[in-house]
């Protein structure tokens, strides 16, 4: 629990202004996506065994990092935004068939997995969160166990990262962009606490699509600039709900 999101910390009493809430949603989701890609990177550089779908393991890493790195209030706001990001994605794609063939689980399932894990991390203080997100009781009763298994599994990996090692190195192809600002600050914060078995390159730049990638051939995470506009569109979908 090291730091709060700059945008969330700047929130005015009585709640964020509308555009601040949108920026906080976009920032939280950019970080959630970055932590997902970092999960892929760790699976590679830490030579982790993965029993199950790697995409699910990367989602678990993402919500655990939010839970571990941020103050409780900021983590809660981020969990709302990241879970709602999956929900909005499902709403945005409601006219298309669910791609069950995809390496990622359906967005609705990623939503509930995220909600369950975060709730399971502290059910006493997060019961309102589970209720707001309509987490069914049938799932909620397993969430503490799910969290403990996830925290034991990824926790051992995170602990190994604190013992020095190579840094993440950030390059912005568009200096000063919203995405570059967030990722540059995040890489700096993570480098203060974590060292890696080998250097991980982190690049923000245009890709021609709203996406993010980890490439094991050069150990690089690419965060596409196009995600920002996509996330702003998703935020608008939530407004209509
Ligand atoms: Zn992935």
What's the overall average pLDDT, rounded? Answer: 92
Shape: globular
Share of helix among residues? 55-70%
Give the percentage of residues in beta strands: 5-15%
Quaternary state reads single chain
Number of strands: 4
Radius of gyration of CA atoms, rounded to a whole number: 17 Å
Give the N-to-C terminal Cα separation: 32 Å
| Low-confidence parts | 1-13
In words, what does this structure look like?
- This protein has 10 helices and 4 strands.
- 59% of the residues lie in helices and 8% in strands.
- The radius of gyration is 17 Å and the shape is globular.
- A hairpin with a 4-residue loop joins strand 3 and strand 4.
- Helix 2 crosses helix 3 and helix 2 crosses helix 9.
- The protein has one domain.
- It is of the alpha/beta class.
- Zinc ion binds next to helix 2 and helix 3.
Features:
alpha/beta, binds zinc ion, disordered N terminus, about 240 residues, single chain
Concise summary:
By secondary structure, this protein is an alpha/beta fold. The protein contains 10 helices and 4 strands, in the order ααααααααβαβββα. It has helices at 6-9, 18-45, 54-69, 72-92, 107-121, 127-132, 137-140, 143-161, 178-193, 226-239, and strands spanning 168-172, 200-205, 212-215, 220-224.
Element layout with pairings:
Blueprint: H1 6-9, H2 18-45, H3 54-69, H4 72-92, H5 107-121, H6 127-132, H7 137-140, H8 143-161, E1 168-172, H9 178-193, E2 200-205, E3 212-215, E4 220-224, H10 226-239
Parallel strand pairs: 1-2, 2-4
Antiparallel strand pairs: 3-4
Helix pairs in contact: 2-3, 2-4, 2-9, 2-10, 3-4, 3-5, 4-5, 4-10, 5-8
